[in-house]
Amino acid sequence: MNLAPIRTAVLAATALSLAVAAYVLASPGFFIIDEVIYFIGADALARDGTFSIQNGIETFPSEDMHAWLLVEGPLGLTPQYPIGTSLLVWPVMWLLGAKSLIFANILFGLLTSYMTFRLSFYMFRDRGVALAAALLLALGTFWLEYVVGHWPHSISMFFLLCAFSLFLRAMDSEDGLVPALASGAMIGCGIFFRLEAVILLFPFGAILLLDARKPWRLLVGGAVGLLPFVLAMSFANWIRFDDLNPLSYGTSGGLTRFSRYVGMLAGIGGALVLILLCRVLKAKGIDPIKLLFGLAVVAVALLAVMQHALFLRAASGLYDILIDTRGIEDGRAGVRLQDDGTLLFWGLPKKALAQSLPWLGCLVLLAGVRPGPERRYAIYILTVSAAWTLPFVMGSWHGGLGSNMRYFLPVVPLLVILACWLAGDLLRKTRSVTAAHLAGVMALSAGAFLYIDRSTSLSGAYVHQVVSLLCLGATVLACAVAVIGRRAWSAGVAAVALGVSFGFSAYAGLGDLMASQERRVIFEHASEDFRNLPGPSVIYAIPEEVPFAFSEDERFVAMPDAQTGEIDATLIARVCASDFEVLVSRAFQPLFVEQGFALRDIVGNNHHQGVNFKAVDCEA
């Protein structure tokens, strides 16, 4: 009897059941301002059929009314982010409301899990490895936190994973034009949700020029697939920002401007010329690897000597973003060094990529992989991953508030697939450790780390930021011994060390998920209390507290200058001279007092979890 269809049906039913449970249990509260901006963009499109959020800008023109991430354009104020999220969820906004974006993320999360399985099986032809990859993505990374969130990382991940899968098919097929075209289209879809999707163009182009049988045919196919989406983004940005740049945020400023990375990406593009030279050398029978290695060494040496400050910044960014966040220097009040040497980001123990995923230490095993299709795929994954991280490393941008490096999410499924394949190879080399043993070690170690966190004198931040590095170091050491020793016992030790690191990632991922949900619950209650505030009013608050004010005609949201904290006194005077009140949340009350504004209590003011409001005393 063929049990495969039954197993598939059981797995599908289990996944759907978990997805429904996640949707029901997930808090609709907002974690950060970015999520609110995505939501109000979709809400405006569903409610008014427009991309604009007026927010009182015509009545009270002021930079404070831009709420940091709204850009003034021909239509009025519009979200700085791409329009893909709004277009995707507006049909269900009337039914699902604040959970519309969560619904979309869960749906695409299921698709991403399936694509992880399919891509893993395509590369390594092992159903066990493919299933392990799908499970590890869910249980051994920080991915789930974003599946039950509002920002569209989960959606963007799916399209970029599809782009990589189609890219491989284009590389492997005799013709490759159709999958190349489809891969370009998937990148275009990704850009509609997150602009950084454009980064994939550079490693894809490099691999094509260096390794494809028909590079120009595939490049043209990818460009043709991408072009309609670039034109559509240009048109959308022209309508919203009066700017034909498809990668525009509508302003050269802002907290998360993409333009800060354009110079870096242009440099990567210039490297394609060098790769083309290597292609020519390869065609003439000359090995280009030595040339590339030599030039890389010379480039690093020249950078270290001639651009010492730039070299140190790049090295520091590499270490801080990929290895250990405790060295990050951020002067904002929310980033605080603790007595035990840990660093909290607005109360959260933010982790570098390897601190979240210490099992990345198993990549050392690649040194022992023999030439073949599997190694070629591994090189492709490493190339894409390195190219993806480079702009963020050079910019030393850690992503602000959060428990992990969310910008690296698109490459997490690829790294998961690679880790599971390497783990499977370890298990084949030892008879003492099986897949069941590895899963048991993962579960036991996750429980042990949770116990250390909750029941010992060590802080959770110390476990997240320091103990994680011990796991990483142990995994690197054990895997290095396995490569050098080539013995069954050393492979077994490496497998156990890898299982412990898998367990740490499961513990850390669960902790990140719970921390984000706790914050969401706080702001869920705060947004409910907002409805009890008097109106009409201009409300100085972080948008997570008052997300629904953006959809009301007589309640507007304002924020002080993001860099200086300065409050627009002219705006306050104009509001005081009208029928509106100025309400101030606890987050901004110290700024108002420092800048000479008198505050008074609001009659009948409700508050929850310390989030409350006062009014500016216009008579003082």
Automatic annotation (TrEMBL):
Signal peptide: 1-26
Subcellular localization(s) per the UniProt record: Cell membrane
Keywords, sorted A to Z: Cell membrane, Glycosyltransferase, Membrane, Signal, Transferase, Transmembrane, Transmembrane helix
GO BP annotations listed: lipopolysaccharide biosynthetic process
Domain of life: Bacteria
Nucleus is among the record's keywords: no
Main location: membrane
GO CC list: plasma membrane
Signal in keyword set: yes
Sequence intervals crossing the membrane: 129-148, 191-211, 218-238, 258-277, 289-310, 352-370, 377-395, 407-427, 434-452, 464-484, 491-510
Record protein name field: Uncharacterized protein
Native species: Oceanomicrobium pacificus
